[in-house]
């Protein structure tokens, strides 16, 4: 590969990029403030593909990446450089209707200098793009410039409270000061490493559990443009990491840790002001249940009250507990509350069997023959009421897989039935036999036109055992109760993201996009047919990327 050819990129070729000595050379570059003329043989030079067509000198992120890469699967290894962009060689055929950008966010940098982070969710955000244009594919990645990331780079240490990482205090007074800052939110991270959404007004926002971690980015350059400052005075420090976003609205939950409950809020496109739809008081427990996500139907918002509850004491700790910022309170029971979107009234509040979920898949209203809504069905990736998955996602666990031990706790598609006739209890069953998907289940997507409506198909990651992390792409047929699985030995695929074909009438008419991190350190973008679930195209990246979490689709204007 000609590392210094700065002319226009060739079709079916990576943008010129050299990885020779990039660690050492970029470390020096970094010290020199990144201002260095390209020279042969030692720099990482990325030629940014059309329309930018200018070289970008890319600082690598440390000196030790190569060692780390040798030891660990690339999925659990920090991203090797700040940014890259280039055109990929496509094997197979990208449908010409697929015009737009898939963005995927995730925690891609798990160390600062020599200090290694503990947990998957601690990593500084790496945003990846796959830009589809006329059958061609331009890929890129870039670190999100949160205050937390910039401060860590500048001070060479963790400076904000992350999922499990906490700044190391120089003395007791510094610790006390930080606790005070926790109440104002000042010490909480804005590391927007969990998801990315496109608002109805076109803004693209990266998100995490903290409200201050709502960062607006440019979907083409992946540049961080600034913070989305909510202009209301609703306060609170945290929100659901997965708002429900459509062209018409942004709905989210704001947990209230002081008077245990949740505000259900709505923000219109073109504004930064969230307005309260209503409030749900917790039925039980010392604190609200964790609301990483929640589902909606056409007319209702379902507010989950998991027995895995936020824990104020754990928030203040300097060292993590096995459940991090949470506590398991089986005695407090589990509930689902149903709020009418139009009136804010609670129309049902039922006790359900204990459950643990990060991700709701979808929900819909069940009607009788006369069109009356009798129940709400809500589906989620359910971990059999077992919280161990949270600790299983420690990097040490993820990195220690020997190919033999079956370490991934079982999960299933949990289907809740919430009666609307005033009965006090709801049901929780498996929507299909969990062996259909290897008893692994997480990271789901659906056809967005089915949001809140009766639906048949979902895409998620399942398991081919033995494994320590979900390692299949799985198409779930919830009508036939069957799953079709894609698997490649040793590969770690990220969330299968469904993009519908414009004009499609069938629910599964579209493609499924995933980024694969391979055992040998390589990686590729994969396109499966949404209907047959067969591969239609793949495109090798110049190097494997770390595992990522959630994505969104930004159609071409
Ligand atoms: C994924 C993924 C990322 C992530 O969380 C990141 C943070 C910083 C979470 C912080 C917190 C909670 C989870 C609970 C309440 C306190 C607070 C510190 C904000 O979580 C994910 O699932
Ligand atoms: C990776 C994951 C949860 C991510 C949260 O956003 C769960 C995987 C486990 O099965
Ligand atoms: Fe998530």
From TrEMBL:
Binding residue positions for Fe cation: 242, 292, 359, 550
Cofactor: Fe(2+)
Protein name: Carotenoid cleavage dioxygenase 8
GO molecular function term, any single one: carotenoid dioxygenase activity
GO cellular component: chloroplast
GO BP terms: carotene catabolic process
Keyword Transport in annotation: no
Tree of life domain: Eukaryota
Cofactor binding note: Binds 1 Fe(2+) ion per subunit.
InterPro entries: Carotenoid_Oase
UniProt keyword terms in alphabetical order: Dioxygenase, Iron, Metal-binding, Oxidoreductase
UniProt lineage: Eukaryota, Viridiplantae, Streptophyta, Embryophyta, Tracheophyta
Similarity annotation: Belongs to the carotenoid oxygenase family.
């Amino acid at each position: 590969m000609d590392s210094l050819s700065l002319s226009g990129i060739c079709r079916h070729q990576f943008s010129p990029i050299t990885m020779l000595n990039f660690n050492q050379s970029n470390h020096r570059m970094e010290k020199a403030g990144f201002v260095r003329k390209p020279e042969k043989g030692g720099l990482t030079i990325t030629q940014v593909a059309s329309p930018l067509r200018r070289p970008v000198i890319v600082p690598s992120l440390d000196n030790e990446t190569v060692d780390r890469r040798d030891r660990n699967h690339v999925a659990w290894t920090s991203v090797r450089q700040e940014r890259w962009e280039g055109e990929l060689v496509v094997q197979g055929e990208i449908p010409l209707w697929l015009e737009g950008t898939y963005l995927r966010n995730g925690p891609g940098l798990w160390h600062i200098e020599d200090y290694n982070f503990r947990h998957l969710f601690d990593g500084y955000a790496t945003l990846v793009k796959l830009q589809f244009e006329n059958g061609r594919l331009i890929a890129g990645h870039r670190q999100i410039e949160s205050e937390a990331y910039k401060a860590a780079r500048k001070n060479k240490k963790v400076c904000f409270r992350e999922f499990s990482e906490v700044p190391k205090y120089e003395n007791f007074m510094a610790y006390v000061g930080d606790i005070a800052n926790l109440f104002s939110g000042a010490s909480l991270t804005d590391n927007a490493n969990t998801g990315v959404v496109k608002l109805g007004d076109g803004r693209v926002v990266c998100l995490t559990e903290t409200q201050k971690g709502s960062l607006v980015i440019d979907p083409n350059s992946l540049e961080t443009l600034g913070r989305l400052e909510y202009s209301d005075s609703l306060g609170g420090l945290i929100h659901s990491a997965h708002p429900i976003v459509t062209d018409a609205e942004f709905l989210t939950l704001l947990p209230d840790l002081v008077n245990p409950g949740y505000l259900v809020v709505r923000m219109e496109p073109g504004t930064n002001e969230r307005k309260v739809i209503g409030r749900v008081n917790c039925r039980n427990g010392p604190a609200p249940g964790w609301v990483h996500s929640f589902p909606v139907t056409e007319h209702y918002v379902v507010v989950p009250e998991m027995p895995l509850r936020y824990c104020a004491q754990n928030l203040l700790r300097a060292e993590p507990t096995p459940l991090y910022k949470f506590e398991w309170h089986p005695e407090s029971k589990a509930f689902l509350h149903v709020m009418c979107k139009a009136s804010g009234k609670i129309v049902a509040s039922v006790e359900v069997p204990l459950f643990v979920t990060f991700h709701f898949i979808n929900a819909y209203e069940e009607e009788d023959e006369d069109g009356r809504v009798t129940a709400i069905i809500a589906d989620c990736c359910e971990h059999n009421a077992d919280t161990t998955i949270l600790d299983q996602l420690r990097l040490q666990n993820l990195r220690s897989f020997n190919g033999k031990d079956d370490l991934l706790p079982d999960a299933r598609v949990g289907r809740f039935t919430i009666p609307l006739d005033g009965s006090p209890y709801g049901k929780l069953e498996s929507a299909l036999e969990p062996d259909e998907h290897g008893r692994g289940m997480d990271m789901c997507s659906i056809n967005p036109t089915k949001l809140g409506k009766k639906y048949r198909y979902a895409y998620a990651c399942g398991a081919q055992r033995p494994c320590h992390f979900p390692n299949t792409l799985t198409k779930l047929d919830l009508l036939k109760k069957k799953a079709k699985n894609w698997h490649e030995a040793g590969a770690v695929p990220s969330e299968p993201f469904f993009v519908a074909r414009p004009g499609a009438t069938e629910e599964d008419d579209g493609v499924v996009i995933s980024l694969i991190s391979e055992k040998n350190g390589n990686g590729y973008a994969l396109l499966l047919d949404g209907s047959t679930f067969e591969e239609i195209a793949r495109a090798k990246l110049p190097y494997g990327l770390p595992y990522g979490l959630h994505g969104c689709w930004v159609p071409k204007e």
